[in-house]
Amino acid sequence: MTRTVPIPRVPKDYEALPPFALILLSALLVFWCMAPLGELLLALGQVAYARRQHARSPLNDEEAELLCALAKAGGQQIQMHKATQQFGSLLNDHAIARAATGLSSRGLIAHDRFLRAEVTLSRRGRREGKMLQKQFAAALAAEMKVGDRVSNNGLEMIVVSVHRSILDSGAYKFGEPVLCEHYGQDGRPHQMLVPQHHLDRLN
After folding, report:
1. Beta bridge partner(s), residue 131
2. Local structure of 150: helix, strand or coil
3. How far is 25 from 131, CA to CA, in rounded Å?
4. Any transmembrane segments, and where (predicted)?
């Protein structure tokens, strides 16, 4: 016959200790289990915030030029290389692929994971593309041209040479310095390279 050993009672002064210990251990166990979940939620929040900030960040030269070309081409399933050629862009293949990835991450174009050359502009992409077209046209019109009469701090000159810079990616770069000519007090022509933002067009 099995003999039952009685469990001694907890003294009255310590009766609250076992429930308190149980609650404390339970809280520690829950905290230990929830800590990884909290870290995961924090990481997901940081990723979402980074994506939101990226979506709102300004487009780089490649992305702006590609979006402008796609907006001008219009329609559905736009062929990127054909659109850039028709736009007069010199973006190379790598630049187009990088720009398409950037535009897709911002939700401006629908670009499948197989990186096919055809893309579709989103509603926001069409809207921003139209705005870029106007900005591109304005920047092109503002560029100094050979023969323009300009002034730099009161010194009148004539633009004799314009160098249109192309980035390594093939993207256009506006506002590059132009070569200007003026006649000095000796009556001889003098030439100087002047940044366009320092010049005022006189004609």
Report:
1. none
2. strand
3. 61
4. 20-44
